[in-house]
Amino acid sequence: MSAALDFLVPLFVPADRPERFEKAARAGADAVIIDLEDAVAGDAKDQARCALRGGFTALPILVRVNGIGTPWHDGDMAALARHRFSAVMVPKAEASDAFEALCTASPMPVIALIESARGLADARRIAATNNVVRIAFGSIDFSADMGCAHTREALLAARSELVLASRLARRAAPLDGVTTTIGDAGMVLGDARHARDLGFGGKLCIHPRQIEAIRAGFAPDATEIAWARKVLASGDGATGVDGAMVDEPVRIRARSILKRTGEASLGAGSLNSLQC
Length: 276
Prior knowledge:
The chain is built from 12 helices and 10 strands. It is of the alpha/beta class. It has a 6-stranded parallel sheet with strand order 1-2-3-4-5-6. Strands 7-8 form a two-stranded parallel ribbon. The protein has a two-stranded antiparallel sheet with strand order 9-10. The longest helix is centred in the last third of the chain and has 14 residues, at about 185-200. It is globular.
């Protein structure tokens, strides 16, 4: 996958509000998702397609289209063909001939949004589909489909499966779903930290006020950084640090932590791309 698509915080912006595109790009996110789906009412879909445009930022620009089988999907895909975007985000992704045909025909990479029981059951196949570069979790729609609570505990198994599916397909770690609360930075941070600890590589964002908290949630804290430095200073082979055994797998995790801080000195050995 292109490094340009391995982002941490992508921010949604409604496709029918083009005056917000540049503002979204300046908000501090790593990518902008122009949303033709949930953010746009049915009678405004045509207007939203006409408002599509790129070139307003150097950040990756994605477009979330309406799902396969909806009345708007074909029109969305036709509109995308007139532009150059970084990726197309496909909601309600499920393994099917139609989904595979979309991935094959798409001139841009595909990010598959897992939002249903069937989608979760198909997640490993979806992640491995040609031209799918990443999967993301549509946790709210998934909860509605399952009839379960939208809580960390209720969604633990689903989130873990998406991390595993991504790893098995050698894709970038998946993107977690949105936190609907905007004004509670502590909740956003906690959700981001939970996702990071499970092995997610980023989190979908619905408001600029969430960006800083998401970044903080995915960043190592001071205790983790101190531990990682101590582990990497312990030398090679099996040894002990603070009463715990340290060997190469432990050092791989320590390097991963320091890599997220931007520290250049990560010690010997190779980095494992699985961060969990």
